[in-house]
UniProtKB/TrEMBL annotation:
Keyword presence, Repeat: yes
Annotated source species: Haptolina brevifila
Region Disordered, annotated ranges: 210-251, 299-319
Superkingdom, taxonomy of origin: Eukaryota
The protein, known as: Pentacotripeptide-repeat region of PRORP domain-containing protein
Amino acid sequence: WQPDAWSYTVAMAAASSCHQHETVGRLFAKVSSEPQLRASVAAYNLAIEARLRMGDLAGARRIYSRMAQGGSGYPPPRTDTFNVMIRALGERGRPYSWVLKEMARACVDPDVITISMMLKLQPTTAAARGVWRWGFQRIRQSDERMWHHLIEAHVRLGEPERAAALLGLMEEKCGHPVDSVRSHNLYLRALLAEGKPLEALAHFQKMCADDEEGGGGADEEEDGGSAEGPMRERQGSTLEGPCPEATVEADSEGWVPLCTSPRWLKAPAPAPDAHSFTIALSALRQLHSVGDDIEKAAQLSDQPSEQPELMQGAGPVKGRTSALSVKGILAQQPAQQPAQQATEWSPLSTSQSLEALPSLSSASLRGRAISKRAAELFEEAEARGLLPTDGPPPAAVAHALICACGADVDLAVQMWRSHLRPKMLGTALEDAGLEGTGVEGAGVQSQQAAYHALLRVCGVARRPDEALRIVYAIKR
């Protein structure tokens, strides 16, 4: 049996996924030297990417030149060829404007993947908006993925407060309903980036409640599927039009308004997925710092003369929750609250549970309550079938679960022993069979993430002795 050209392409893809770029080059050279074999565009794309990953720009351009010049046996470049080049250069911090010029010279139009990839590579929100406008001029109709990458750029680059407004524009102007769990996860991430873990947990609870009530779909009756949505989009009105039924505040560029009450937030939310639970665990981790801010705010409130501007209700610092604003949200609690209720505090069970946070004056008491809720979230995700019950969870879930313990090393170690270690031991033999292949098993990745989270907790708690013990455990 002799491998054909497609067999070589599959082998190249496997080597590329393992970051074995030299192997990709050898396989491409072999398939190119066989006269009876004709390498596909996918094989050329993989060869170009391997050259760029190794820093061989000249070699990558030589392979591309064969495709651009044409001739017998050389396939012409496609959109995915240029996408590969943009991603490989952009991820290495290299300029890729010449790739866009080659794309125009070859009369190849960018697609949604091209725009989404370029949005992901931008260093500032201004640059992301420029890519957005450039893409709108060159593609026929927007895609939900484009909107998601635009919103993710705002979350990542310091303007998460615009996420809700952008999701509203995606629905109102372009006919893409905000009913996917990915859209709501982006909103949860934006709330965390703003320093609003309580709001994130409340929205997560809404997703769980709507799922139990049989919801999970967006309201499609209101203008979402109108035929003039794509037309308005092509005219560029999506970048300027105000959100209906909302307070509008244009930014300095007049690019996109801020909506204080987007319509999509009133519609039923989709059921959460595993990533939603990971974000909720991260919100629980943020609650530790919020509790510390509340205690500091309580101390400041006893000395109003020292900070007159702060006590007069100055706005929160961008990117962080104001301690006083959080205290105000949670201050509506009974004057006398039994001490035993503090240990039963749960930020996701009822709306009244949010009011119990100030009563947890002890940091250790608050930490135990939050870590207990984190364990309950983990078990709920398993019960929903979102996490494996007989294997290790994803690395992100393991990391977030440990970090939800805040600065309590004992709670973090207990969480590791009770919820993670037994699951990882079951896959140790399976992962051992992957040694030497360059591929890490799920158990190894999850275990490393948990160890890193434990070290982070030790760092926050300033416990170098415990960190040293964990390092010894990793070596064993």
